[in-house]
Design brief:
By secondary structure, the protein is an alpha/beta fold. The chain has 2 domains: 169 residues, Leucine Aminopeptidase, subunit E, domain 1; 306 residues, Zn peptidases (Aminopeptidase), CATH 3.40.630.10. The chain contains 15 helices and 19 strands. The protein has an 8-stranded mixed sheet, with helices on both faces. Helix 3 links the parallel strand 5 and strand 6. Helix 9 packs parallel to helix 15. The protein is elongated, with a radius of gyration of 24 Å. The model has no long low-confidence stretch (mean pLDDT 97). Bound molecules: ligand BES and zinc ion (ZN) (2 copies). The site of one zinc ion (ZN) has 4 residues, from loops. The site of one zinc ion has 5 residues, from strand 9.
């Protein structure tokens, strides 16, 4: 969607649809106050009233949208309202609309414009790539919004809206990747996608194919990918470079383009959404796109380990012992606990960048859904300062995270008798033992693991800026975390 900022009063600009957002209790502008009884629109959160204002007012249709009380109007509120405006435009089948806010928000104009644009961009997203009957009310696409500002606020609102648009596009990019079917987005195709992203943004991209992985000893990725005709791959996407005062941050993503469970085959219903098992890598792709477009003054390295987990005569088996890139051996007890195995190679690889932090994102365990449900990302790690930063970024970005403990006793649970580690430690604390497994491969580097197995997918969107299926979770969180590092 195209979002522009214009100077002037929206009420006097010609448009098919104008959206006027009003705080609760604020009087309506005199031009329209007389058009309706005051009690019909109070500006309560998400309240909407559609008017057909007479000339000389500009908009053919005028939607009054409630922002709620001023003291509760936080960043998230503005995301909601931006998205609601788009939903209404879609329902009215109006492709372009104008939008303005009556009164001053309690947050900075920059943040309000950012959130507004984020909300619009995310709210406009739908996955219709495979629909051939596109011209229905359901699939109508909203393409343009013009945000109206006072001349003295033009610059701040324009830069806020630009940021929001870039972040929103990072999220919809991730959603597109997650929503792509497994046959069309294989590990090799994900590698092509990384190359295309590099060409588009200037990121330095390197992709290792199966032969290169073999040569370098990526035993974990190779084991998991062995059973599929679609060969595994590994991607490195680099923004900026390491220098004094510029910390290196590694973002690591799980890129299982399809997880059938392998020989430890999943039941049919659990497999339905398993094209989304690369959502961690989609978050890394989306965040890297944003980092490049914002040109953040950081050295950020995105690492994605990708494979397809399939059952075949060639698959890795329960009982196999895999030698990972680190040299550590892993006893495979369940081939469905494959994420931690491919991630072990990527995490070990991250150490060569001497990073200030390694932040890894994965749809790692069903257990996180039992612990936290479908809407919350689990966070685990050993570096409290890093966990605090990410939790804060979660609050600000709207992608909240909740911590589970990583005490020593949990680390004992993934030790194997016949190998250094085992890839499964039973159902108790399933998310934590998966995280402690990962932690064995990061050395002493500050490490955080984000388990998005619940939050990466939704069948029932609850917020106006959400869309069914891939959520694009992780992009906003990672970007907020990195922007915070870039500020200080
Ligand atoms: N990709 C799954 C985790 C998952 C489950 C993601 C549900 C999204 C929704 C992962 O590879 C997996 O299967 N984990 C197993 C581990 C177990 C065998 C130790 C699980 O969670 O059941
Ligand atoms: Zn699995
Ligand atoms: Zn998986």
């Amino acid at each position: 969607m195209e979002i522009s900022v214009k100077i002037g009063n929206m009420l006097h600009e010609v448009a098919e649809l104008g959206v006027l957002c009003v705080f609760e209790g604020n009087p309506l502008p005199p031009e329209i106050a007389h058009l309706l009884p005051a009690e019909d629109f109070r500006g309560t959160a998400n309240q909407k009233v559609l008017l057909y204002p007479p000339a000389p007012l500009g908009p053919r249709r005028l939607l009054l949208l409630g922002l709620g009380s001023v003291d509760k109007a936080d960043i998230e509120r503005f995301r909601h309202v931006g998205a609601l405006a788009v939903q209404e435009a879609r329902a009215l089948q109006v492709a372009e609309f104008t939008i303005g806010v009556q009164g001053m928000p309690p947050i900075s104009l920059f943040d309000a414009a950012d959130a507004f644009a984020e909300g619009m961009e995310m709210g406009a997203y739908r996955f219709w790539r495979y629909r051939t009957n596109l011209h229905t009310a359901q699939t109508f696409e909203v393409t343009k919004a013009a945000v109206f500002a006072q001349p003295e606020n033009d610059e701040i609102i324009s830069s806020g809206a630009r940021l929001g648009q870039i972040i929103g596009r990072g999220v919809t990019y991730a959603r597109d990747l997650v929503n792509s079917p497994g046959y069309s987005l294989t590990p090799e195709k994900l590698g092509d996608e990384a190359v295309a992203l590099g060409q588009r943004t200037g990121l330095k991209v390197t992709v290792f194919n199966k032969a290169q992985l073999t040569e370098q000893g990526f035993g974990g990725i190779l084991a998991v990918g062995k059973g599929s005709v679609n060969e595994p791959s590994f991607m490195i996407m680099e923004h900026g470079q390491a220098s004094a005062g510029t910390p290196t941050i590694c973002l690591v993503g799980k890129g299982l383009t399809f997880d059938s469970g392998g020989l430890s085959l999943k039941p049919a219903d659990a497999m339905e959404t398993m094209k989304s098992d690369m959502a961690g890598s989609a978050a890394v792709f989306g965040a890297m796109q944003v980092v490049a477009e914002l040109n953040l003054p950081l050295h950020v390295v995105g690492l994605v380990a990708s494979a397809e987990n399939m059952p075949s005569g060639d698959s890795y088996r329960p009982g196999d012992i895999v030698t990972t890139l680190s040299g550590k051996t892993v006893e495979v007890l369940n081939t469905d606990a494959e994420g931690r195995i491919i991630l072990s190679d990527a995490l070990f690889y991250a150490q060569r960048y001497n990073p200030a932090a390694i932040v890894e994102v994965s749809t790692l365990t069903g257990a996180i859904i039992i612990a936290l449900g479908m809407r919350t990302t689990g966070i685990m790690g050993t570096d409290q300062a890093l966990l605090d930063r990410l939790s804060k970024a979660g609050e600000v970005s709207g992608e909240r995270v909740w911590a589970l403990p990583m005490w020593d006793e949990y680390h004992q649970m993934v030790k194997s008798e016949v190998a250094d580690l085992k890839n499964m430690a039973g159902r108790p604390a399933g998310s934590i033992t998966a995280a402690t497994f990962l932690a064995a491969f990061v050395g002493d580097y500050p490490f955080a693991h984000l388990d998005i197995a619940g939050s990466a997918w939704t069948n029932s969107p609850a917020k106006p800026y959400e869309s069914a299926r891939g959520t694009g979770v992780g992009v906003r969180l990672l970007v907020e975390y990195l922007r915070g590092l870039a500020r200080n």
